[in-house]
């Protein structure tokens, strides 16, 4: 569901644009910061939302949580439109400035454009004007507010989370897990299991009033956020044990992914549909196998 007028104010100085499956966040200050850049077929919807949320002023910078195609889709377009500087990790920079990787990111976005009947000539291309940031760095908004940077690898090795001070709001991208419509929290350790679990523990230990994840509603309130991290962490550990048990019974990796898909799938699943969902679950199986399966 799209937001009315393409944007929605969470607080006076924070707005979300897009929709619940691909929300982009704007933090308004002396400098306006955009967080993540969604998918290309939603570019027009995003741009309208950004302009409405900022009353005609422009975003100054874009902070990217990680380099997955569905978080950077409109980044090149926004750079052209708004003249943005970009913040991301050095690992994300390598990916986002590489011609071949950019082509892959564009391909995934073009596939989505076809599916969503966007016949425009919009495209993703290597990004310019990147400032790399790392754990402990601060991105100043100029009015007493700043983003503190955290490294949160595991979903993606290039992943960062941004904590807005003094508001205590964490922009976590996909590093905190993915909340499905039925309340199930999908673990998404696509690259490294232990790093993912450690990143979750790091974020769970923060004193937070708000949590903004990459594919769900904004979460407000300490208790709700604490419970979310408890659920996310316990399901992460349980999923590891389930996968490991099946690996030890010599089940084939695809067979394991199929069995998890069958058990957890709901229509409009946050982790994708059909082959995309299977590929994502397969990444979980592979991560556990690579790190823990001594029988391989
Ligand atoms: Fe992701």
Structure summarized in a few sentences:
The protein has 296 residues and is an alpha/beta fold.
Task: Specify the structural class.
Answer: alpha/beta
CATH superfamily placement:
Ribonuclease Z/Hydroxyacylglutathione hydrolase-like
Present as ligands are: fe (ii) ion
Report the order of strands and helices: EEEEHEHHEHHEEEEEEEHEEHHH
Strand order of the largest sheet: 1-2-3-4-5-6-7
Please report the total strand number as a whole number: 15
Sheet with most strands: 7 strands, mixed
Query: How much strand?
Result: 15-25%
Give the N-to-C terminal Cα separation.
Answer: 44 Å
What does this structure look like?
This protein is an alpha/beta fold and 296 residues long. The protein has one domain (2-239): Ribonuclease Z/Hydroxyacylglutathione hydrolase-like (Metallo-beta-lactamase, Chain A), CATH 3.60.15. The chain is 40% helix and 21% strand. The chain has nine helices and 15 strands. A seven-stranded mixed beta sheet has the order 1-2-3-4-5-6-7. It has a six-stranded mixed beta sheet with strand order 8-9-10-11-14-15, covered by helices on one side. Strands 12-13 form a two-stranded antiparallel ribbon. A hairpin with a 2-residue loop joins strand 1 (2-11) and strand 2 (14-19). Helix 8 (253-264) crosses helix 9. The longest helix is centred in the last third of the chain and has 27 residues, at 222-248. Bound molecules: fe (ii) ion. Residues 66, 68, 155-156, 174 line the site of fe (ii) ion.
What distinguishing features does this structure have?
binds fe (ii) ion; 296 residues; six-stranded mixed sheet; Metallo-beta-lactamase, Chain A; 40% helix; 9 helices
């Amino acid at each position: 569901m799209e937001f009315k007028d393409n944007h929605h104010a969470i607080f006076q100085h924070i707005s979300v644009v897009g929709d619940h499956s691909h929300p982009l966040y704007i933090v308004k200050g002396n400098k306006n910061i955009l967080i993540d850049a969604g998918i290309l077929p939603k570019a027009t919807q995003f741009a309208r939302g950004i302009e409405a949320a900022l009353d005609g002023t422009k975003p100054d910078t874009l902070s990217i949580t990680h380099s997955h195609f569905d978080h950077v889709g409109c980044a090149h377009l926004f750079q052209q439109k708004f003249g943005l500087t970009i913040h991301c990790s050095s690992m994300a920079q390598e990916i986002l400035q590489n011609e071949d990787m950019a082509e892959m990111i564009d391909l995934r976005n073009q596939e989505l454009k076809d599916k969503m009947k966007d016949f425009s000539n919009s495209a993703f291309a290597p990004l310019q004007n990147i400032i790399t940031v790392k754990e402990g760095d601060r991105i100043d908004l100029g009015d007493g507010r700043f983003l503190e940077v955290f490294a949160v690898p595991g979903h993606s090795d290039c992943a960062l989370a941004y904590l807005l001070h003094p508001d205590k709001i964490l922009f976590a991208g996909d590093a905190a897990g993915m909340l499905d419509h039925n309340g199930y929290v999908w673990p998404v350790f696509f690259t490294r299991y232990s790093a993912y679990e450690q990143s979750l523990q790091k974020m769970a230990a923060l004193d937070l009033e708000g949590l903004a994840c990459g594919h769900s509603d904004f979460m407000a309130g300490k208790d709700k956020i604490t419970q979310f991290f408890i659920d996310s962490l316990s399901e992460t550990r349980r999923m590891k044990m389930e996968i490991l048990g099946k690996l030890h019974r010599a089940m084939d990796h695809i067979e394991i992914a199929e069995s998890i898909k069958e058990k957890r799938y709901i229509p409009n699943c946050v982790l994708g549909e059909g082959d995309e969902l299977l590929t994502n679950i397969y990444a979980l199986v592979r991560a556990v196998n690579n790190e823990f399966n001594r029988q391989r």
